[in-house]
Amino acid sequence: MSRLILFHRLILRPLLAQPSRALLTLVAVALGVAVVIAIDLAGFAAAGSFRSSMESLSGKAQWEIVGTGGIPEATLGKLATLPENASFEPRMEEFVTDEASGATATLIGLDLVANPRRSTVTKDSGSIDQLDDLRAAYVTPAFGRKVGDLLPVIVQDRQETLKVAGIFQLDSDTSSQDRLIVVDIPVAQELTGRVGRLDRIEVSVPSFSQASDAGAALAEQELLRVIEGELPAGTQVRPFGARTDANRRMLEAFRWNLRVLSGVALVVGAFLIYNTISVSVVRRRGEIGVLRALGVTRAGAQAIFLLEAATFGAIGGFIGSWLGYGMAHVAVQLLAATVSSLYVTSSPGEVLLSSGYLLVGVLLGCAVATVAALAPAREAGSIAPVEAMARGGRDYAVRVHTGRSAIWACLLLIVGAGLCYLPPIQGTPVFGYVATLLLILGTALLAPAVLTLAHRLTEKRVQHVLGVEALLAARNIFGSLRRSTVLVAALATAVAMMASVGIMVGSFRQTVLVWMDNQIQADLYIRAAAPAEPGVNPPIDPEVAARIRTLPMVAEIDRLRTYPLMLHGKPTTFSYADAAVMERRGRVSFLPGQNRESILEQMARGAYVVVSEPFSQKHGVSVGSRMELPLPDGDFPVTVIGVFNDYASERGTIYGDERVFAKHFTRENITGIAVYLKDGVDIEEGRLAVQQATANRRVMISTNRSLRESAIRIFDQTFAITWALEGVAIFVAVLGMAGALLAMVMDRRRELSMLRFLGASQRQIQGLLYWEAALLGMLSNLLGLALGLALSLVLIYVINRQSFGWTFQFHWPGSLLLAAISLIYVCTLAAAWFPARAATRLNPIEVIHEE
Amino acid sequence: MSTLRMHSVTKLYRSQEADVPALREFSGEFQPGEFVALVGRSGCGKTTLLNLAGAMDFPTTGEVWIAGQHTSKLDDVGLTQLRRTQVGFIFQFFQLLPTLSVVENVELPLLLSGAAKARERALAQLDWVEMLPYAHRMTHQLSGGQMQRVAIARALVHRPQLLLADEPIGNLDTTTGNLVLQLLRRAADEQGATVLMATHSQESTAHVDTVIHLRDGQVEGISRPVCPA
Questions:
Q1: What CATH number should be reported for the domain holding residue B216?
Q2: Count of the separate structural domains present in chain A
Q3: Considering the entire predicted model, what is its pTM?
Q4: Portion 125-154 of B in contact with A at CB < 8 A
């Protein structure tokens, strides 16, 4: 009980005595925690649902049989006759559009006669007689249909009408918003144009799912060998869910990047906690002396401040978790769009704040706050009672070891720079993240030296150039060096992250614009209207391409045939087109040092391919590398003769020439048609002609310009969440500025009051505060820009390259940075408004005669 | 014309229970060059009187004129202007700004008022208090007596007509205190300033022209000691 009383009297009461400062610190911690929680919740919701749609109605299979371009249906028959105790379930998958709502739906083809999970789908409608209907479909309630309704959907480049044979509910794992359409295998084959082929065969072996001893493993190997013996060329057995797992790993890297970015606000919040507790230690110095004299131990004095920080952390963490929950609802929409375009077609799941997350939020707040408070708390413990109670104690300034800090700063910066040269760990740029953290810490430690240098360079000129208020402000900043450096470090970190992300995104955007200039050369682009899987559009009927080619205003067309495939356990895309058209029309640009013309010429002459830069990074191949492509008719050895720039897909692309590769594929999977109009033909006229020629198909026709615009719109949308994160970090830092200036007003109220006695007007007192904010803001911005430049290099050349495999040209988005820095500067100045107002409300007589 | 005139000045501090009178019906007129000591125990109203005299506070009733200006009729800008030009303050705990050097502390009032030749005048004033060799030191490098001399230089640098000193030797030993009192005497004699000093030390009254004894916010008596010099 006595501990509670002490907690209230020594910790809570002093906090409540300064509600505005306590509130500012709480808001800073809460926002820091909120951003982290929001990003994680939103990331989980955005990524989580894809598992449910593609894996829905899968059994507990151990393996799956897959093949580039599908598996011949006859394979299933061969496998079914094997005397082994294994079951083989065929499966078809396709993303379609629900015509009524425009929403993406997953079409799944199952063997509804033999599949053991048939009852999940058909139980409500009982009989399987309806399977005789070639358009019978079982759908989830999200469609809002009832049995017997017609269901128009867009499949690839056609509209098809299905008939609802039953409504089924999925298990609790899946979102109620998931739109699933289940049809019998033959219906799916007919709808997708893949008659006679299967997308996957799931292999279940009941006895292996329980056994784990060596004997079972041997039997498993034997069974695998038997199955592989029955498979045709170009097909393979792999662990079940390998593609999903690979997708998930890529998605996880993306989420890690966001997590690191979201942590910036928390780091800035930690700086502010450090500042708050430092101020508290200085202000309560006399009180600590009294407590020590009354018998409080050194550890007890430390505990007071650690508990103060932990209180901020716990309350801030709790509020932050709920705030994050609210923010996640907005973030999930932004994230889902990115996840769908880069990783997997999905609709966002529900955002859920479990008690576990709430606990994580509170613990996160507590941990960050307590760690941030360690140094000032240790200092509180080291105060000797006599020294603390002596007069003049309030003038005590915390010593700052500028030289020692600078040496540590240099060490951290050097180590940070060194880490940038280390490779990623399992595709995650761990050393890049650590380097980022070290650079931030190094810069924070460098801040005292920078402030001291700035002070020495300007001390003789400040008053003459800027006036007495600026002189007093500059002296105050230098006079309380530790507090000032923490503040500068916090704001500089936020500015740096904003600047670095600005430079990174600006460079990326500029590179993509230049790349699009090379890449998007055709006048018109055509793709099927159904939803695309990342990297692979749905196919267009070859007859459509032939019809467009015959239009009189068309000079030539380029048909892109794309097939998803798994290589080295990673999902990638194989495409082939006419290399001669590529050469003529300048579609592909290669990395520096590679001759475009000779590469494209060579492509048609044999088993040669070119690969995209992300592919080269992820698979560790370069010019001259040899690899085996799993084509439908078997593994095909190829040589890489070029690496080209590509920003359309993170998973990587392999290009070959149609003369070499068309014969390996039984089905021409045209996923895009580029149309080059004859000279002088108006693009709009051309578009109308193509539209008429494809009137019976559901295709999307984009002009060169509209495709570029939509690409850059998607690009900007992808980075919207990044900007939002930076905005929060800046906001937290500006709050910190307000809090620190308010603390300054409280701590220096005697001096401010004295100035009133000496004839300072209220305007001059306010001016002093504004100057302090202005000078701190200026130093923070300069330091932040320098750090931001360094971080942008890490982001561009280390983190981004190791995460996604993209290289982009460094571009300095001057106007954007100038606008952002100006906005931050205005916010910093605005942060001084409340403290300045508080300063003019001081009663000089009361303050001076407190002595 | 008198430097300071106070007429029937009363100051009440309002508390939850009742109004507490800090000063009651005080009247007085102080001339240039006059050195006045306000003597009494803690809480007798000395500091309240100095605050009213320095235009830092307003009387509940009564009127205060400083250099002919009625303080109750001035707004904040006017009062600030009055303090900048006509009033100097000295405190028991010196109240020097620790972030400024000695000369920067002294020139501060001139900089705040935008006066010309601030540095030159500050150095001259430091010379007057015999602190010129310490001009570029930081204040924490000075002794208590030295700090108070700097505070006196700061209070006089803008040539105020009225110098208000609140327990200026309360934090100093006797020898140093006497040096400070001599400086205040010189300020009255050489610069013609009216010096009002609050003190509870009877010994310090030896240097003054007039002693006003206060008790419970009222004048208990006025005496004119004979200067030992």
A1: 3.40.50.300
A2: 4
A3: 0.74
A4: 140, 154
